[in-house]
Known about the structure:
Layout: H1 2-6, E1 16-20, H2 24-30, H3 35-40, H4 43-55, E2 60-67, H5 75-98, E3 101-106, H6 114-126, E4 133-141, H7 143-159, H8 170-175, E5 187-190, E6 209-212, H9 222-233, H10 243-248
Parallel strand pairs: 1-2, 1-5, 2-4, 3-4, 5-6
Helix pairs in contact: 4-9, 5-6
The structure holds 3-methylbut-3-enyl trihydrogen diphosphate (IPE) (2 copies) and magnesium ion.
Amino acid sequence: MGELLQGINLQNVPNHIAIIMDGNGRWAKGKGMQRVFGHKNALTAVREAVAGASDIGAKFITLYAFSTENWNRPKLEVDALMSLLVSSLKKELPGFQENGIKINSIGNTEQLPKKAQKVLAEVIDATKDNTTITLTFALSYGAREEIVNAIKNISKKVVNNELDIEKINEKIINNHLYTFNLPDVDLMIRTSGEQRISNFLLWQMAYAELYFTEVLWPDFRREHLFEAIINYQNRERRFGKTSEQVTENE
Ligand code: IPE
Ligand code: IPE
Ligand code: MG
């Protein structure tokens, strides 16, 4: 792991890393266990990913923990995920404080059970002055729903004459998303071999580098994050320009 860390150029670290934590169910199945066993064993991976991101100086990490579509899973699994959310947030709070981790959430969190909303609000408040890294949990999150909400809120302002239609631009749209206080995603990682976005941060990933790994989420460790970072650093982010233009400006 130390070697991998040494291979990372600390001047070119993704500022915002987003992760689709996938494969808990398959991990458990592979061990002859129920799906929920996989979710229970996902916490170490969360800790490792956040610690790794922090080690390299990334300022934002966003984890997809529960999608709007995940509400359609069997009630038993949804309930288990919700109670794991509550117990994990409580358990991790001292660690968040110790490591300067500021907690944030995106998504339609009003749909979460009251208990989860309460603990989440408490943890967000307790960690609000931490500055090492911002850890955002996407909970009951769907990018399309987020965009629909933004359009509704912007439209209300237009109707109330608070906003001129001609003034609507990318910045205004940004400011109406759940992620109004987060920068664009630089690197998106998905575990478990699936190569899709699954309604995650559609607007914010417009120019993100995408990285897919076969590792199942409960097995994800700092070294896997570092591999993704090294892969990212070997790419050229051109943002529409030519390779020559990009190299000239370096
Ligand atoms: C990701 O693992 C966790 C959540 C979506 C909550 P999955 O539960 O999707 O695991 P697989 O994809 O079925 O293996
Ligand atoms: C995406 O994973 C959502 C989270 C990781 C929370 P899923 O496992 O729900 O995605 P699909 O349905 O396979 O695309
Ligand atoms: Mg899955």
